[in-house]
Amino acid sequence: SSGINAEYGGPKQTLGKTVDNVVISVPMPKEVTGCSMTASVGTYTFDPTSKQLRWDIGKIQPLKVPTMRGTCTIIAGAQSRAAHPTIHVDFKISQLAVSGLKVNRLDMFNESYKPFKGVKYITKAGNFQVRT
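RESULT FIELD:
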């Protein structure tokens, strides 16, 4: 039996912004033949060829911690060994620059139209890994 909790720091860490498009990918050992999981939020898939468990959470609600629990079956006769997979996490936070960089002024020259005054910030996970 195994479980995953996808807790995040809450509104204080994200400055009240919503965490969107959350996907957690867990590479399973080669002995795993299937997974039967129950997710409190989102959906999961297990690819028996690539041995990847993928949990599509979507949007994280601040007061509802996503959890997933279940069991994985292994090849008959295979030794159960301790696994410490690297968990890949992808997400997006709109209107937030975690670096703290802000654009105070932007000058444009030789443009015939009047640009919209505003800056669109976005934070994406890129290649974020959690090592267990």
